[in-house]
Specification:
The structure is a homodimer. The first copy, chain A, has eleven helices and eleven strands. The first copy, chain A, is an alpha/beta fold. Chain A folds into two domains: 281 residues, Aspartate Aminotransferase, domain 2 (3-Layer(aba) Sandwich); 120 residues, Alpha-Beta Complex (Aspartate Aminotransferase, domain 1). Chain A has a seven-stranded mixed beta sheet, sandwiched between helices. In chain A, strands 8-9-11-10 form a four-stranded antiparallel beta sheet. Chains A, B: Its cofactor is pyridoxal 5'-phosphate. Chains A, B: Belongs to the group II decarboxylase family.
Chain lengths: 405, 405
């Protein structure tokens, strides 16, 4: 459905950069992202009614856009000369796209603060630590600017506590953005809604329907409270060609999406999301997400039932992070990591079998098993686990042999 | 062919963000952009052999990427603290994407210098003025950073003199980028090659095959001399997931395109360009460009043969800028502009007829007639001119009537 949408989009090749350039595509985009926001249980303040909605290409792009909006809003308040004093915050589990966006926007690396989020916090950003850091920065004469919280971090899908983080950030006038690139899709199921408690207080939230809602790459939905801040930062009526058209003679009542993003040109991404929403329906998409979560839970149970393995971070969505336990108490962490690295390489080398990825979490090398494809069935998950077990047996045997040799 | 490429891309949905994620797509991209560069007669220093090549979405994105690369390279030389002293240059005819990119990258609007390029310079950036401005800035303690030159400006397709501008910029260690978004395609014809004389000296050049080389939106090819500067600015090995994969264990010999752009994810745009290049061949594309230029020249001749009209800027490619002359010596420029505005509105309102755009050049409202579609034939051009003439007759008659009333 997503691919069909892309193919149709290619065929009509419309460029909705101003409302006038394609009223139908612009309005369709508003309606579709609004639908999606409602399906994900987002509050009115982030929907078209109370805020603004758009489709960009990627989360990186969305984060850069809102960061520049926040930067300009803050500088208008504290003065242009303070740009070197702005500080942005995230956890060390936040996707690197955020630090990259801050760098592009001219926030020095030394003003980009990544707060450690360890296993004791289930890899979520600890609000107390954020509070202490922001307080210390403010006392040192710095200006807290922006917080990027995550619903579903990249490595372990950890969930930051939006409510508590907003309570910390709000007194400093900090723009809070929620990066829900992958896990935002899960919010379509009411059972996950509590994970974004407090979302009424955030300034913006982005997620990628191309990750888990069956829409083709690229596709990132962005909802934000104050689109005027975005347009103030990225809008322009400098264009010698557009200047005199109907699109700019609308007294600001119409949405010209060129002013909501980095580029002038843009793709009609709403068509594929519309096809997916109409084709599957909210219930159909819920079924897809639920089935994936159920299969990941089953995989987690299988890992837990094998004493040679441990589940490294608590599974929340459809990703399981696991690794081989230390085979003996005498092996070192680097040796353990090497065993797990070998295990992943051999599992992936089977070719016909499952494909897993890896991450380094708290120094430990972990294997990541994700369910996200429409074609995955329970038997595939069982087979994948069997492949892991077989290779683990071989690796552990040869490892013991080496130790006794 | 471009649309077919998009549809195929959607079907395979591959994401060549690292070499390892899709070696075939990454290598295909290198080969295709290299072919294209050779077809456009670009020098070796900008091709894969001596520089670097990539496909991004838009010119805005390309300009932002190289600007950040230039910024970081310069700051490494002069010190991070000098960021507020960096100055970027363009002409007042340069696409607004450049000033927007500078703003996003944290270059204050007051440090973004647009040099007037008037009719006496055929709307090209006057090198002497740039020289005086850069000299004055350097003497005032500022640091000249970046020049965005244009081959084919947005309003009138004016062509900046690359050779002379590089000679001015080079002593200041300024990064010179050439924005050839639309007119870059014309370089496929040897007859236009002289327009980029001196291109050996630029640091980067971008153009959009989606504008005039039959590739679907979005598609921007970027060639640059020093890709290591781009990777230094936009690259990262912070990713907890990618950190441990083969892609980053290559000693920098492989191209990970995620490090050449703002976003992590990206589309396999090379497929559509490949289909276009293979389907039409260089000769076929030359024929397309030549036919469009010939039709635009014919339109220009028709405008020139009607004394009521004037051609506002010399036509270089396939765009003709024209307007109604003052009907009497007593009308004011705003009145003249209003007549031309009415003319454009009425021509476009015919619906079935031609669609033209407008620009304001040196205060004068001009109509822009562009040939760029594969389906345009000479009879369409003749018909378009007839429509313009008919409406001009009616408008001028009613205007004279009003004056005598």
């Amino acid at each position: 459905m997503g691919a069909l949408g892309e193919a149709l989009t290619a065929g009509i090749n419309v460029v909705p950069f101003t409302w006038a350039a394609s009223p139908a595509a612009t309005e369709r985009e508003i309606v579709v992202v609004d639908w999606l926001g409602k399906a994900l249980h987002l509050p009115k303040s982030l929907l078209f009614e109370g805020g603004g909605v758009t489709l960009l290409g990627t989360s990186s792009e969305a984060i850069l856009c809102v960061l520049v909006a926040a930067r300009d809003r803050k500088l208008a308040e504290v003065g242009e000369g303070r740009v070197g004093h702005l500080v942005v915050y995230c956890s060390d589990q936040t996707h690197f796209a955020f630090r990259k966006a801050a760098h592009v926007a001219g926030i020095g690396n030394e003003n980009s603060c990544a707060i450690p989020a360890g296993s004791q916090d289930m890899y979520a950003l600890p609000p107390a630590m954020l509070e202490a850091t922001m307080k210390a920065d403010a006392e040192a004469g710095m200006t807290p600017l922006f917080l990027c919280a995550s619903i579903g971090t990249a490595a372990t899908t950890a969930v930051d506590s939006i409510h508590e983080l907003c309570a910390v950030a709000s007194p400093h006038g900090v723009w809070v953005h929620v990066d829900a690139a992958y896990a935002g899709s899960a919010l379509i199921c009411p059972v996950f809604r509590h994970l974004v408690n407090g979302v009424e207080d955030v300034d913006s939230l982005s997620m990628n329907p191309h990750k888990w809602l069956l829409s083709n790459n690229d596709c990132c939905a962005l909802w934000l409270k104050q689109p005027s801040a975005l347009v103030a930062a990225l809008g322009t009526d400098d264009d010698v060609i557009l200047k005199d058209t109907a699109a700019t003679a609308d007294d600001g009542m119409l949405v010209d999406y060129k002013d909501w993003q980095i580029s002038l040109t843009r793709r009609f991404r709403a068509l594929k999301v519309w096809l997916v929403l109409r084709g599957y329906g909210t219930d159909g998409l819920r079924d897809v997400v639920r089935a994936h979560v159920r299969m990941a839970a089953a995989f987690q149970d299988m890992v837990g039932a094998d004493a040679r393995f441990e589940v490294v971070a608590p599974r929340v969505f459809s990703l399981v992070c696991f690794r081989l336990r230390r085979p003996t108490m005498t092996t070192t962490l680097p040796e353990d990591n090497e065993l797990n690295r070998r295990l992943l390489a051999e599992v992936n080398a089977t070719g016909e079998g499952p494909y897993m990825s890896c991450a380094v979490v708290g120094g430990a090398y972990v294997l990541r098993f994700a369910v996200g494809s429409t074609l995955t069935e329970e038997r595939h998950v069982r087979d994948a686990w069997k492949v892991v077990q077989e290779h683990a047996t071989l690796i552990l045997a040869s490892s013991m042999q080496n130790m006794h040799a």
